[in-house]
UniProtKB/TrEMBL annotation:
The keyword Transmembrane applies. It is a multi-pass membrane protein. This is Phosphate-starvation-inducible PsiE family protein. The chain crosses the membrane at residues 21-40, 60-81, 88-107, 113-133. InterPro entries: P_starv_induced_PsiE-like. The keyword Transcription regulation does not apply. Signal peptide: none annotated.
């Protein structure tokens, strides 16, 4: 009985240390992606002098929002690294930023009203889920008792 618990403890420690190593590598990759995104945004600034203003601003806006979505992924990874769990609100924030990036790109396309309605419904659903996640978070429920 005691021996089985010791083996379970060793397996658990191995899993946790392996997850931390892999997560550290992931964080480095995310930081490199953020750096590349910032570099791309600055590189696209050259289009201001050459291209049509509408197209240039769309490109820059999508670049910046993509970097912000990657920052939200970094926040999720760091939260897991420090707390040992993933916060649902960070994931929802990441999805909202990504969807809003697509919405910004929609401004420059002809779309059917059904597609616009679906995107609006998706954003409203995500906002509702985020409100529920904050309202009923485990930390908040612990503080209420």
């Amino acid at each position: 009985m005691w021996r089985e618990e010791a083996i379970d403890l060793k397996i658990s420690r191995f899993f946790e240390s392996s997850a931390r190593v892999l997560l550290s590598l992931l964080i480095v990759a995310i930081l490199l992606a953020i750096l590349a995104g910032i570099g791309t945004t600055f590189y696209d600034l050259r289009l201001v002098l050459k291209g049509e203003v509408h197209t240039v601003f769309k490109t820059l806006l999508v670049d910046m929002l993509t970097v912000l979505a990657i920052v939200e992924v970094l926040r999720t990874a760091l939260a897991y690294f420090t707390e040992g769990r993933v916060k649902v609100t960070y994931i929802i924030d990441t999805v909202i930023v990504t969807v809003l990036t697509e919405v910004m790109a929609f401004w420059y396309r002809d779309m059917e009203w059904q597609e616009v309605a679906m995107v609006i419904l998706l954003v409203l659903s995500l906002a509702l889920i985020r409100i529920i996640a904050v309202r009923f978070s485990p930390r908040r429920l612990q503080n209420d008792f």
